[in-house]
């Protein structure tokens, strides 16, 4: 069965790398467009919490997107809080070295 989005609920976006730079700008733009944003950050808690405090529709979660267990936790927490995920913006980078063709697809 195909589920439809509840028009009374704002759409939900998960955006990684939100504590600064492009990720922060993307998160703010999504809020301006009417989304609730789950912002994922790795290490800059102070900036992430500042962003959350400035925008009531941004909720931050500390996670390392290079770790599968952390990614699953972000998804689970988002579903638990909002019952849906409408958009994912994978802005955060991870450190990988070598030819991309040699990477495990799980990465």
UniProtKB/TrEMBL annotation:
One of its GO terms (molecular function) is oxidoreductase activity. Keywords: Oxidoreductase. It holds the Pfam family adh_short. It comes from the Bacteria. Belongs to the short-chain dehydrogenases/reductases (SDR) family. This is Beta-ketoacyl-ACP reductase.
């Amino acid at each position: 069965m195909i589920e439809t989005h509840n028009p009374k609920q704002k759409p939900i976006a998960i955006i990684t790398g939100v504590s600064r730079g492009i990720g922060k700008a993307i998160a703010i733009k999504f809020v301006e467009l009417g989304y609730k944003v789950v912002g994922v950050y790795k290490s800059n808690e102070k900036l992430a919490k500042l962003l959350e405090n400035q925008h009531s529709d941004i909720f931050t979660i500390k996670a390392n997107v290079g770790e599968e267990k952390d990614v699953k936790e972000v998804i689970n927490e988002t579903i638990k809080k909002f019952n849906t995920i409408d958009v994912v913006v994978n802005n955060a980078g991870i450190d990988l070295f070598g030819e991309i063709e040699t990477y495990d697809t799980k990465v």
